[in-house]
Request: fold
Amino acid sequence: MINPLSRRTGNLAGFLACAGMLAFGYYLQFSAGLEPCPLCILQRIVLLATGIAFLVAAIHHPGRTGAAIYAGAISLCAVAGAAISARHVWIQHLPEDQRPSCGPSLDYMLSTLGPAKALGRILRGSGECGVVDWTLLSFSIPEWTLAAFLGFLVWGVFLARRD
Reply:
């Protein structure tokens, strides 16, 4: 019988939350026609990494020390995702005349600049990152993603501290 309060169940719930968020992002992209900006794509990558960390922790189901290591990995991913999301939210709240200009596509930047320089350019943001195409309860996608990453951070640490 599965204990609904076990670390394994909690990690599985974290994985399912990440998978659900990714699925919703792809739904918005392919069904609603919202094209993700470069910062959105980075948030998806970090969300995938966070989900994988939760899934591996659920499958492995380690003891206390292992749980702390997985919590560290989950926390690292969640902090990185929160930082990217916070940057995105900041760009969205800039006045339109102060936003960075729209840049080249992600594929173009990766092929011409290489991964390291492209990442730096992406993190600076661009004009398309400042556009709010969709909201729920008046919060944009990056705002919801920021809240989710902070929730994953707390959840990962909470699970590691459980007996």
